[in-house]
Design brief:
Strand content: 5-15%
Distance between the termini: 86 Å
Number of strands: 15
Strand order of the largest sheet: 2-1-3-4-5
Largest sheet: 5 strands, mixed
Shape: flat
CATH architecture of one domain: 3-Layer(aba) Sandwich
């Protein structure tokens, strides 16, 4: 079978790099010669001229990835590791991709050849150095920008309206007042303090000729954005006027909007468990405006998204029905003994499932440790062997490594089951006391705590405004069959055993 050609990849990010001796032409010539000297054939030469090495999102690299996927190349040769990428994560991803597709990688400058384990080790090490260099440069740039800002300098970005950048005698660039638009922008805060709204301020300044940088009319939203921008403090507005303008704007807030905001602070303690008794869809918290104000409701999701044709259930008032649910939970506490008994039975199943998983994990660990010893032995032989004997050792090492990875996946699966079983055991033992405390404190604790207790205790609460009924579905894990222990730990709702509580009507 004819060997596949190798690709020579070159990259420069700036003209300075070309002048420093890493031009595209030099990289092409050295890499091509190295590939031919190694006994391979040179295929296409792919270059990225003027692209940074911070990631692999470059035309040339994308072309190489496509060629790898198509199975058209046998390897890649680069002049230096940082020509490929300076990002360690990207480098490791590339190495993994090359390994999966049996693609070789040669870096001429660092003498790296990934066909052997030592080459792969050096590749990862050099990648870490490249990442360190990039992060060091970035840290220095950020430190320099912080130093400039501490001295009152301008570090760049969109210029605030009404400002210009001037070069100062100390060498720094600083913001200054634009003589054309600055005096107009400066009026925003005094106008707000005198009682003008953002819309009124925008209208007045537009009449005076103020526009944005694109020549468009200034808007109320832009005025509000300018008022919140602290870059103007000390330049176009004092700190006192900046604060006073915001206080004045808050005092003019629409009372009805304040009421809506206040209602939005309501904690919907049934969120996530409320269900529509008509269509069994979830019920979502909403706010609705009535004749006397704004109220909190639970609304059927189907009705909200698909219309009354799908579900015509009425909205459920949040406050009254939440209180009714709390009373229903307390009233049905006599049924908790059945819940406790169900959990106690489940403890026996936990022990039944945990025992074999623990024994299997021990056997897997012993087998894995033996393979690791074999791997160390073969690695020593590989390092001491002649070049012609290395392929056989590498094949054996690769096969052992595959077996080790398979065993470790099985061990992880056992560990997950053992950890889950232990958690369930602790949960089972704590259930009686938790139920008692939840019932005793449910009506008196904070809404946030009520919400957590309800979600822990209930799988669903079915609400029906038409029949004024509540149906509680308790959240009791299914006890798996002795013959079907794989059901243990399932989190699917179909795997949960449910017990219906008493119906309860909310207070009028």
């Amino acid at each position: 079978m004819e060997a596949k050609p190798w690709v020579v990849y070159t990259r420069v990010s700036t003209d300075d790099q070309a002048r420093e001796g890493v031009s595209l032409q030099m990289q092409e010539e050295r890499c091509a010669a190295f590939v031919l000297g190694s006994g391979y054939t040179v295929g296409e030469i792919i270059s990225d001229d003027g692209y940074s090495g911070k990631d692999t999102h470059r035309p040339g690299m994308l072309k190489i990835f496509a060629a790898i996927e198509a199975g058209e190349i046998g390897g890649i040769c680069i002049w230096k590791l940082d020509r490929l990428t300076r990002n360690m994560r990207d480098l490791l991803d590339c190495v993994e991709l090359f390994d999966e597709n049996n693609i070789g990688l040669i870096s001429v400058q660092e003498h790296i050849d990934t066909s052997g384990p030592m080459g792969r080790f050096v590749l990862h090490l050099m990648g870490a150095v490249a990442q360190l260099e990039r992060e060091t440069i970035s840290a220095r740039v950020k430190a320099g920008m912080r130093h400039i800002m501490d001295r009152g300098g301008w570090t760049g970005g969109p210029l605030p309206l009404g400002c210009i950048v001037v070069q100062c005698d100390d060498g720094l660039r600083r913001l200054d007042v634009d003589p054309l638009t600055g005096p107009l922008v400066q009026q925003i805060w005094p106008l707000s303090i005198t009682g003008k709204s953002t819309a009124e301020i925008a209208m007045r300044l537009s009449e005076d000729g103020l526009t944005d940088k694109k020549g468009k009319k200034i808007t109320a939203r832009r005025i509000a954005s300018i008022m919140k921008n602290r870059k103007y403090v000390g330049l176009l507005v004092t700190a006192e006027d900046f604060t006073a303008a915001h206080e004045a704007m808050e005092s003019r807030t629409n009372p009805q909007s304040s009421r809506i905001k206040k209602m939005s602070d309501h904690v919907f303690i049934l969120a996530g468990v409320a269900r529509c008794a008509h269509c069994q869809a979830s019920m979502t918290p909403v706010h609705a405006r009535g004749s006397s104000g704004v109220y909190a409701y639970y609304r059927c999701h189907n009705k909200s998204k698909k219309g009354k044709e799908v579900c015509a259930a009425k909205d459920v008032p949040a406050l009254a029905w939440e209180q009714a649910v709390l009373e229903a939970i307390v009233a049905s506490s006599n049924d908790y003994e059945q819940i406790i008994q169900a959990y106690k039975k489940r403890l026996d199943v936990v022990v039944q499932i945990t025992a074999p998983a623990s024994g299997q994990h021990k056997e897997l660990t012993m087998h894995r440790d033996k393979l690791l010893q074999q791997s160390d032995y073969i690695m020593d032989r590989l390092l001491e062997s002649e070049d012609r004997g290395k392929p056989a050792y590498e094949r054996r090492l690769s096969k052992i490594q595959e077996e080790i990875e398979k065993l470790e996946r099985e061990m992880a699966s056992c560990e997950s089951g053992m950890e889950l079983a232990e958690m369930r055991k602790i949960e089972v033992e704590a259930i009686p006391e938790m139920l008692k405390q939840a019932t005793e404190t449910l009506e008196s604790c904070a809404p946030e705590e009520q919400e957590n207790i309800i979600k822990w205790l209930l799988d669903a609460v079915y609400l029906s405004q038409a029949s004024e009924e509540i149906q509680l579905t308790y959240r009791i894990p299914k006890i798996p069959d002795a013959k079907n222990v794989e059901d243990f730990g399932s989190t699917k709702k179909s795997k949960w055993y449910t017990m219906m509580g008493s119906n309860h009507r909310p207070a009028d």
